[in-house]
Amino acid sequence: MANQLLEVTDLSAAYGDVRALSGTSLSVEAGAIVALVGANGAGKSTLLRAISGQLTRTSGSITFAGIEIKKHTMKQRVELGIVQVPEGRRLFPDLTIYENLRLGATLREPRSHMRESLERVYGLFPVLRDRQNGKAGLLSGGEQQMLAIGRALMAQPRLVMIDEASLGLSPKLTRQIFELIGVLNEQGTTVLLVEQNIHMALKLCSKAYVIQNGRVIMSGSGEDLLADADVCKAYLGQRGSRIA
Amino acid sequence: MNIFLQVVINGILFGTMYGVAAIGLSVIFGTMRIIFLAQGTMIVLFAYLVYWLWRLVGLDPYLSALIVVPISFAVGIGLFYLLFKKASALEDRNVSLLLAVGLMYMVDNLLLKAFSANPRYVKTDYGSLTFHLGGINISFVRLMALVIALIAAAAVYWFLKRTLLGTSVRAASVDMEATRLLGINSYWVAAVSFAIGIALAGTAGVVMASVYSFDPNYGFTFAIKALIVLALGGIGNVWGALTAGLLLGVIESLATYYVGAGWSDAISYAVFIMVLIFLPQGLFGARTVIKKV
What we know:
The complex is a heterodimer. Chain A is of the alpha/beta class. Chain A has one domain (4-241): P-loop containing nucleotide triphosphate hydrolases (Rossmann fold). Chain A is 38% helix and 27% strand. Chain A is built from eleven helices and ten strands. Chain A has helices spanning 44-52, 74-80, 97-104, 108-112, 114-124, 126-130, 141-153, 171-186, 198-204, 222-227, 229-234; strands at 4-15, 18-29, 33-37, 58-64, 67-68, 82-85, 159-163, 190-195, 207-212, 215-220. In chain A, helix 3 runs parallel beside helix 7 (141-153). Chain B is an all-alpha fold. Chain B has a single domain, classed as ABC transporter involved in vitamin B12 uptake, BtuC (Orthogonal Bundle), CATH 1.10.3470. Chain B is built from eleven helices and two strands; from the N terminus they run H-H-H-H-E-E-H-H-H-H-H-H-H. Chain B has helices at residues 2-32, 39-57, 61-88, 94-115, 140-162, 164-174, 176-181, 186-211, 218-233, 238-259, 263-278; strands at 130-133, 136-139. Chain B has a two-stranded antiparallel sheet. In chain B, a hairpin with a 2-residue loop joins strand 1 (130-133) and strand 2.
């Protein structure tokens, strides 16, 4: 297939004796928004951790822009343009918003484009500009998510992987965050989303993979999956329990 | 009144070294999550370097700071990659802690073997120079110790607050994994913060050699005193550590003068225990272990 930015082939991983991924394959086309959906513990986050390099004991192959990256360090992967927005945001609460953003651009290339990246992030999330000298820990949940995404964008990623952007946010805020993810995608950043808010994720993405017990059990366009009765029954019916 | 003031000022000037040592412990704790017990030994090691530079080539102790501080920084980087890099990646912090204890005893004994237990001191023309201000005597070298401590604290504060690498150190002190996700080389960040701690030991070594007579046994005592100061000042707070150092100096000075020379250590350990029981966050109320810088 042409123009695949990320290609994961037959990836397996385990935490101790617990198998978290068994032979997962997926591909992300350059410029797309791809969603990984599935129940808690299905292996979605494990997949992101394997791609970002947090998890290294894996078998199978991960290529990014045609380069096999499985032996790459986390830093090298960020240099190639893979940046993860971790679950729970993992901001530095006592650092200012500006300092948090600045830490996204420590590598040589992003550092030389600090100003432009900062303008881009402030353009997407104006609230961050207004409060740039305030502590990150004082932001609301939605603003913290914006900062986490903005910090990742400072690294000038080609692929940004967002783990549970909607976690702990109201439906209204979630919708706002998802709209902004759509905008940053239109600006040219490829997005890989992990979401438990399946309805919104499927509406936003161009392609989605349903993951269960560490395997891809279904894939297709977001619309097709939304229309699919099985997906609706298996997951959308549980929407109310996703917070629990 | 004059005597009281004199005793307090002596204490402040004596406490500067505690403060510098404690800032070092605090910065190292941030990224390595251990109390670096070999800090006092490092101070003595660098005091010997100052001493021998003076003895062999006649280098003035304050001038030798320009050599000793960079050397101690380089020693810190080397020690980190040689000893602590692997251990720093382990979940279990005890490995790093035991490495520090091993390093402390090894260097202590090497110093004893190489330089004997005889006290050494650097004799300078200005060593006994004293200013008289309204009935108070202030020794020149001790005043210089305070000046050096203030410069060192300001430099560390500036580094942590104003540089990108310093911001990375503060971030890694809170969440190292999150800094890795941003492509930051966390080993380098940990190495630099460790080296800053050792450079502060080098700074304290300059002070020790220029003001006091010292021997290898000072190392452990100083590490423990720095630990008391760290508990008083709260971990992760540069000015808190320095202020707490001066405060411990004052406490010891008052105890020595008004209670008796043998009492000062017992009283400072009692203060240590009281602080841990009643003010576990330190005097300046840092909210959690590493919060403030």
